[in-house]
Amino acid sequence: MSRPDPARERARLARAEAVLEAAIDGILTIDQRGTIEFANAAAARIFGYTVADLTGQPISILMPESVAGDHGDYLQAYLQGGKPDVIGRGRELTARRADGTLFPIEIGVSEALDGDRRIFTAMVRDLSDSRAARQEIEQSHERLRSIVESVVDGIVTIDERGTIETINGATERIFGYSAEEIVGRNVRELMPSPFREEHDRYLRRYITTGERRIIGFGREVRGRRKDGSTFPLDLAVSEGFIGKRRVFTGIIRDLEGLRRAEERASRAEQLAALSTITAGIAHDVGTPMTTILGYAELMEKSVGDEKNRARARQIVEQVRRVTDLLSTLLNIARPRSTEPEPMPIADVIDHSLEFFREKLKGRGVVVERDFADTDPVVADRDRIEEVFLNLIVNAVDAMPKGGTLRVRLGQPSPTLIEIRIADSGVGITPEALERIFEPFYTTKERGKGTGLGLLVSRRIVDDHGGTISAESEEGVGTEFTIRLPAAGAPASEMD
Predict the structure, then answer these.
(1) d(CA 202, CA 211)
(2) CA-CA distance, 129 to 237, in Å (whole number)?
(3) Going from the N-terminus, what domains does the chain have, and what CATH number goes with each?
(4) For the segment 305-354, what is each residue's pLDDT rounded down to a tens digit?
């Protein structure tokens, strides 16, 4: 057997020492008494010592004071055949620097024999920077999540197969789905026909050929809510990569809500103008009308001639109609402070129906009631009941020979309460339907309506953050739909 070449052995040892000194992780060796026998430059730098200061010191000087005193006992117990907690595997621990500061480390300990001596080698990695980096990344992610959740536009991410990966709160509100319901499903669920049937094919064609129709552009398309209703939306889609994985992000703006907001602003301007006009009319006309009414009532009671008494009675009726009209106008134009409180809307609807119970029965109107359990709404009870009373009166007037009054209550989304009031009456022409919410417009006979009831109703619903709309077919009937925010949902979510 040949002897080792001393020169070659010295070179090998020199290379090993160079490797140890060049390592970015700290390397320490201790004997079975826990005394540090070797420390590389990285270990000295990590702990804030010089190599000379570390060598010969007990390893416990690198531990927090709370555990340093127990280390010798732990080491002896292990040497006597105990189960190791550190040796043979890596773990995160807290260490102590020369200046007494504590910091996180990752440590892996191995055991070896040097003749009959047991030697322990520790590989130490300072986790201070990586933990701070992790915290910074987590904080950045949290800030990003906060921003995404606070924007009013919907944000949806999908993968190459069209599977929805994430949605924000605005998307939940726009489409009526919760994240739990829609994440993991294909994005075509948010599209009406024929787009839902074509989407997968379009996506495959784009991935294969690069042909773009939506990606990289903004365009107006239609979306489909959970309840099946469709609405216009503005959609902009961008493409990105997470590693090698392709991801598409869609930015969605509900154009229906935007247009409703614009309509509300326009109505607010109209009502402001109406308020100015009405205030002047009430001031200039109100007092003379009161005087005329007083004299007309006196004539009605004092005139003996029946013909003249009938004329006086007509004057009284017309003056009262004018004063009622002025009162209604002031009610529309005057800002109203609501006193909202959470309430079951079913109770308010039932109270309104009960108010007209005898009239409905006398007119031969059958009430069909279909109420689902819903969350409360926050409303001024008297004002919102005025809406239901107005719509019931209109329905009854539309069915002079009797018919069916259908009242339905539901909650198509967590944030939305929906009330539908439908009659089987004569219906409204398309031309008239477009004008029914205009001031002074009425389809009733002259003298039987002010043309302000629906305007008042819309004002009340607007004040509650809701919407009111109507659909009608001549000879079939008319249906009014009222949508109100559920308790806890911001009124802006109706937009």
Answers:
(1) 9
(2) 37
(3) 6-129 (3.30.450.20), 133-254 (3.30.450.20), 340-495 (3.30.565.10)
(4) 777 778 777 887 777 777 766 666 666 555 555 567 889 999 999 988 88
- Per run of 10 residues, the mean pLDDT along the chain (length 495 residues) is 64 66 82 90 91 92 88 82 66 90 88 84 84 71 69 86 90 90 92 85 81 66 89 86 85 78 60 60 65 74 77 78 66 58 91 86 90 91 88 89 93 90 91 80 58 79 89 92 83 49
Buried b or exposed e, range 424-462, using 16+ CB within 10 angstroms: bbbbbeeeebeebbeeeebbeeeeebbbbbbbbbbbbbb
Give the full edge-to-edge strand order of the sheet including 117-126: 36-39, 26-30, 117-126, 102-114, 90-96
Cα 10 to Cα 5, 13, 14, 15, 121, distances in angstroms: 9, 5, 6, 9, 22
Strand partners, 242: 245
d(CA 30, CA 270): 87
pTM over 0.70: no
Q: What is the C-alpha separation between 105 and 107, in angstroms, rounded?
A: 6
